[in-house]
Design a protein that fits this description.
The protein has about 100 residues and is an alpha+beta fold. The protein has one domain. Helix content is about 15%, strand content about 20%. The chain has one helix and four strands; from the N terminus they run ββββα. The protein has a four-stranded antiparallel sheet, covered by helices on one side. The protein is globular and about 35 Å long. About 20% of the residues are buried.
Length: about 100
């Protein structure tokens, strides 16, 4: 196969007042990507940059244009429900399990 077929695609479920949703290229080298949708349809995107050793979180209900730092699997500037917090922690663990190794 010469072209990469899309693995996952999802549209924005938030109202226009939530701002412009990000476009995330999951094929960007050196990054871990995680997506979550809660029981209300609110969406969240986690990105871990291996080179910078930094995690960020964007959420539609917090305004898509805002990016929140994630440290040790937590986003201290946000109030998350239990499911959101568990998902974020799981993303952090998956992204940082081999952080000392080179990721592509």
């Amino acid at each position: 196969m010469s072209e990469k077929a899309p693995l996952f695609s999802v549209g924005n479920h938030h109202a226009a007042g939530s701002g412009q949703p990000p476009f995330i290229d999951g094929d960007t080298a050196g990054r871990y990507h995680g997506y979550f949708e809660n029981e209300h349809g609110e969406q969240a995107i986690f990105i871990y940059d291996y080179q910078a050793r930094e995690g960020t979180l964007q959420m539609g209900d917090a305004g898509w244009e805002r990016t929140f730092p994630v440290t040790d699997g937590r986003a201290p500037d946000l109030i998350l429900n239990e499911a959101e917090a568990l998902w974020l922690r799981a993303c952090w663990l998956a992204a940082t399990a081999f952080a000392s190794h080179s990721q592509t």
